[in-house]
Amino acid sequence: MATIRRIILFIFIASTALIAQQFTAEKILQNVKMNFDRVQDYSAQLTAKVDMERLRVPEMKVKIYFKQPNKFKTESKNTSFLPRNIFDLNPGDLLTKFDAILMGKENDSEKVYYKIRLISKPEKGKPPHESFIWIDAQRWTIDRFEAYPQEGRKIQVLIDQTLIDGKYFLPVKIFASFDFDQNTDSLSERIYNQSRMPRKGSVELRYSDYQVNTGLSDEIFEKKEKRESEKK
Questions:
Q1: Tens of pLDDT, residues 200-232
Q2: 0.85 cut: is pTM over it?
Q3: For a designed S-S bond to 112, which of 70, 102, 131, 137 qualifies (C-beta 3.0 to 4.6 A apart)?
């Protein structure tokens, strides 16, 4: 009986320890943020290919700058074709702008991911939106993102991360695909047809020439007009 009691006690202690080690969605996102916060600033060269229905956009070369907590700038014309929320996905925003629910773990042939459901927090005049992210359980990077911004619309983003300077994981390639399932009876479809916006397509972003934690000045992110008016 004593042996059985010891076995039961051991199982209880082991199961309690396992529960204590389980991650919550908030803890996972905190780990992602802590990992990303090591990057105080960076600049990089961005090559963008846009393949969208009803749009013809030549390949673009864009210089981008980032500085914590949320400063972001591009140096190129016609960047309006590039959805900023794709290449400016800040982990800190996920903790403040969404309610997160851990859906479980998923495995592929090489990695283990945490799948998290995100629901946008209530905002006056805006309906809540649902999205999902997949986080590398070892590197604490966001490797996949799916969003459903409107009825029938789907955005899927795949992110390849690379190790920069042997210290920082940052995107080396982002591939985003956009899809729209037609429903001729829906109001959004009728509006969509009238606006002649593209239904389907993709955007591919490739990063190169990273410069990380070089101490970028805040002036880089200020508008040119503002800087010139202050000099006068």
A1: 888 899 999 999 999 999 999 987 544 444 444
A2: no
A3: 137
